[in-house]
Amino acid sequence: MALDVVIRMKRKICLNDVRAAFQQSGYVDWHLTPIMHDSTEDDHPDSDLAVKTAPPELKRPPLYAVVLLNDDYTPMDFVIEILQEFFAMNLDQATQVMLTVHYEGKGVAGVYPRDIAETKANQVNNYARSQGHPLLCQIEPKS
Ligand code: TYC
Fold it and tell me: Do 83 and 89 touch, CB atoms closer than 8 A?
């Protein structure tokens, strides 16, 4: 097999390893920007080359706040239950956030990468609707 073909295959295998490791990590929203830093056949057409791959550059995903909005009808206990069930707060934390929403109009239930924030907000809205409450949950880019 020609040397350049071997080099391309090795490079592909390295990248696939990196991708596989990230898929296995379960972290959904990391942006992977691998930098190819190989010596290539263009640099040294006939030499016996080792393949060197730079470590991947990782960027933190943009974060979004999941925000609860106040209304006049949703019972306070229901909001506290939501904060405990969907945002893993204890009773004191949940009560504090509920009161912030009640007195200030809105409050942050949690901060997550976009996909997770959207999922949480949808879950909260669907659950509130299923129980007959008008509670509104939305996401906002974290400032
Ligand atoms: N204002 C509501 C009441 O007085 C309570 C409430 C709190 C509603 C937070 C929504 O996101 C909310 N029953």
Answer: yes
